[in-house]
Amino acid sequence: MSARTPSAAPHLRRLLDLLAEDAPAEALGAVSSQARAAGVPADELAEVEAATATALRIRGALRQHRRRELQLTALFDTAGDLAASRDLDDVLKAIVRRARMLLGTDTAYLTLPDEEAGDTYMRVTDGSVSLLFQRLRLELGEGLGGLVAQTASPYATPDYRTDDRFRHTRNINAGVLDEGLVAILGVPLLLGSSRGGTGKVIGVLFAADRAPRVFSPDEVALLCSLAAHAAIAIDTARALADTRSALAELAGANAELAEANAAVREHSAAMQRAGEAHDRLTDLVLRGGDVKDVAAAVAGLLDSPLTIHDPGGRPLAAVRPDGAGLAADAMDAGWLVETAEESRTGARAVHRDGRWICAVLAGQELLAGLVLHRRGRLDDSDRRLFERAAVVTGLLLLLRRTVAETENRIRGELISDLLTDADRDPAGLAERGRRLGIDLDRPHLLLVAEAGAREKLCAAAPRYLFGGDIRGVSAEHAGTVVLLIGCGGDADPGPDAGEAARAAAAQLGQLVQAPVTVAATGPARGPRQLAAAYAEAARCLRAMRVLGRTGEGACVDELGFLGVVLGNAQDVDGFVTATLGPLLRYDAQRGTHLVRTLSAYFGAGGSLIRAKDELHVHVNTVVQRLDRIQVLLGRDWNEPDRALELQLALRLHLLSGGQER
Question: Tens of pLDDT along 21-71?
Fold first, then answer.
């Protein structure tokens, strides 16, 4: 060989270098072309081409070995997951994720049969983006998965939509289309397979692409290996579950006798505790205890604070477990009544908002609500004790109310005699009052109430006094109900007459379930003053009736001289219309403010400056409005007699609910 003739040796070394670098096949194939271009002799060029072919085969074998190594590593990792994890979902997710990674598919998923529903459902998916596909359920024998399950053999399709080897259904096609899948490979999950049989199919493992693809035999074998691991994981999990169930049954059998003994001891202790509680509550009743004593006993027995509220939400008793008093606010009456109604309907105590509530009933009437401030549960014995305490509380409240109503009836006779003829024997009336526990010489408020349902009002008045712990007495007199309420001394004057009237109207209205109108006056003391106070209150009640203030409460002082003027039931609406009619009609038709301007003018003592400040307008506007008033009412509208009549009409218009425009 001459020195100038190119040699094949450099090209052969180049092939070895490319193999070592794991260069692509294109780079290996280019070596022959490079040798031919370099002018390598034909015999040596044939050697280079043969060496290139050998190098390509070696490269393919090396890549196949590396792929097998990766697959084996994945299988070993999966086996390690099976050995290390007891959570079936985690293992199945790892298998599906590795199937997708090793086969390089867009998605992978695993289906299992639902024996109760008789179909197949998606157990695990990886790479799926369609909720419709993830929630897909397949009837047995449908789709590619049905074919795999029926034959216990793997199947692959390069294009699912055009493959007619399996039965297509509308819901499967919709799910596959929504996921965008085209190429699908499915392999069975087999249990108990051997050379003599195929075993039992317990599911199907899939790998799928969103583009056409032909799956190689190696890929099918790899997915079958992963499916075998999934079958082992499922079988192992089921075996563990069966083992745990058997152990639990064995433990239950061994513990059954001990549990029965414990139940007997617990029941015996509960019965003993219930008997002791019953004896204690019975002793309280026999010794003349009241609801506060019951509350203290129950709070101690249940080791929790307890409060008792009347139907209006006001606290009747509040104690701690040690018997000490507890500051308790009024409870929302609507919430209490609603919860107590639930307790009454179910005849059980109920738990709401960290409190146990039990209704205290007399027939269908709600007397009170027992509230145990305890977030934790009550066992059956404690719950029965709490409910029994509600029964005892109801008996005590009924007894107390019966006694109070009897006393009120006897005292009511005194009030009727006082209002009928206080001058006949004032000293005798005062003495009778002292014997009945009513000191007529102490200051009292006198309330007169009326309602359409008079009999209901008469029955509700003692309950109002009793339920609110108000020091007073009620009596029916002259078609109304009279309430005499002690208002304390100088240190504790109590509510004024107006407040007392409004409170009584509201609470009596709730008890009667109808509007109740209440007029009040006082304080007054002594038989003569009280009789005179009744006359004032009755006159105030008539004035409220004339003014249309039914269902409200007011006192004599709040109505002022109008109470006296209207006490004889004058025609207020007729008087107002006759006096202010032209102004009222003018304002209504034109949206003006003549009535308001006239009221502000009189209120300012005839001062235009103060009137315009009150109305927030210019003084010229006030003058223009007064000119219009003069046109409508006449020139004498501001004369003393006419002005007094107009001011009285304005006041009546306001008190009877009219608005100053």
Answer: 777 877 777 877 887 888 888 887 788 788 888 877 777 767 666 666 666
Spatial contact of 298 and 385, defined as CB atoms under 8 Å apart: yes
What 8-state DSSP symbol labels residue 129?
-
> Distance between CA atoms of 653 and 575, rounded to whole angstroms?
10
pTM recorded for the entire structure: 0.40
Has residue 555 got a pLDDT over 60? yes
Could you tell me which of 344, 405, 88 has the C-alpha nearest to residue 237?
88
Q: Hey, is 316 helix, strand or coil?
A: strand
Closest CA to 531 of 541, 521, 540: 521
Element at 321 (helix H, strand E): none
- Measure the CA–CA gap between 215 and 212, rounded to whole angstroms: 10
Phi and psi angles of residue 105, each rounded to the nearest 5 degrees, phi first:
-95, 165
User: Quick one: pLDDT band at residue 99, thresholds 50, 70, 90?
Assistant: confident
Residue 548 backbone zone (phi > 0: left; psi -120 to 50: alpha; other: beta): left
Note the residue count of the chain.
661
Q: Output the CA–CA distances (angstroms, integers) from residue 83 to 72, 79, 88, 224, 232, in the order listed.
A: 16, 6, 11, 20, 11
Alpha-carbon 240 to chain mean position: 41
Pairing of strands 516-524, 553-555: parallel
> What pLDDT is recorded for position 658?
62
DSSP type of residue 122: E
Cα 292 to Cα 176: distance, rounded to the nearest angstrom: 73
Residue 245, both tokens: 């169930």
What is the distance between the alpha carbons of residues 297 and 291, in angstroms, rounded to a whole number? 10
Q: How many CA atoms lie within 13 A of 479 on its CB side?
A: 5
Extract the tokens encoding 597: 């301007």
Beta strands in 487-637 (DSSP E): 516-524, 553-555
**Residue 54 CA to chain centroid, in angstroms?**
78
Task: Please give the pLDDT value at position 517.
Answer: 92
Q: How far apart are CA 459 and CA 405, in angstroms?
A: 9
155-158 CB contacts, 8 Å cutoff, 24+ apart: 155/185, 155/186, 156/183, 156/184, 156/185, 156/186, 156/214, 156/215, 156/220, 157/183, 157/184, 157/185, 158/182, 158/183, 158/212, 158/213, 158/214
pLDDT (0 to 100) of residue 180:
94
Q: Which two tokens stand for residue 582?
A: 């032209």
CA-based torsion, 133, 137, 143, 147: positive or negative: positive
